[in-house]
Amino acid sequence: MAQEVANKFIENVCYHLVRNMNVMSVEQHFKETIEMQRDSAQSQIDFWDRLMMNMLYFTENEQVWEHEFLKMLEKKEWLMPTVLEEELLMHQMRIRQQVAEQMDAAKELFHKQYETAGMTEEDIVYDYAYSSAGHSMRIDLLTVLVSTPEQSKILFNADPQETIRIINGYIAYHIDSIINKTKLI
After folding, report:
1. Which end of the chain is more exposed for a tag (fewer CB within 10 A), N or C?
2. Beta-carbon count within 10 A of 66 CB
3. Which residues touch 133 (CB under 8 Å, ≥6 apart)?
4. 93 confidence band (pLDDT: 50, 70, 90)
């Protein structure tokens, strides 16, 4: 029962985050961001690498987000919004540094993927948009939860792992719905 209540709460918060989202604005934002990456790249492969490096950054951030969120659920205590912001910024700086240090090895793996998986620019652009939007929604969701601790404490009654699984499902559902309505290439 507690999980069902938590799931409904998560559903409502996620819906609240995307309900007024303008798909055309999202599309325009991504087109501009992608074009900036393309303009600063020295080749098509360099452009793809830049998007893939950003996806690596978003993936690393997702793991940190999940870890920090799980800690709060298990302790049954929300961080203060300013403390959370500082924590996330600290992790983001560390991740940027790690990603920069891994760049050469990562690019080598990416180049193999481009060949063996037959990846296209469209695949990479849409994966980038999906990763970026998912990252933003995770941060926004966590910000809402810690900014409304009284309402959000309802999540403390549910299973932490299942709660995160449900959240990831709703994020994937909403991001998929939004990104699939865009035309980025």
Report:
1. N
2. 15
3. 26, 175, 178, 179
4. very high
Asked if residue 151 has pLDDT above 90, the reply is: yes
Q: Nearest CA to 121 among 21, 27, 52?
A: 52
Identify the residue whose tokens are 């994937």.
Answer: 172
DSSP code for 76: T
Contact at 8 Å (CB) between 141 and 171? yes
Distance in angstroms (rounded) separating the CA atoms of residues 53 and 51: 5
pLDDT tens-digit map of 15-51: 999 999 999 999 999 999 999 999 999 999 999 999 9
Q: Is the pLDDT of residue 117 over 90?
A: no
The amino acid occupying position 165 is R
Length of the chain: 185
DSSP percent split of the chain into helix, strand, coil, nearest 5: 85, 0, 15
Task: Work out the angle between the directed axes of helices 44-75 and 23-40 (0-180°, nearest 10).
Answer: 130
Distances (CA, A) of 179 to 7, 18, 122, 160: 23, 12, 12, 28
Within 10 angstroms of residue 28's Cβ, the number of other Cβ atoms is 12
Q: What pTM was computed for the model?
A: 0.91
The DSSP symbol for 181 reads T
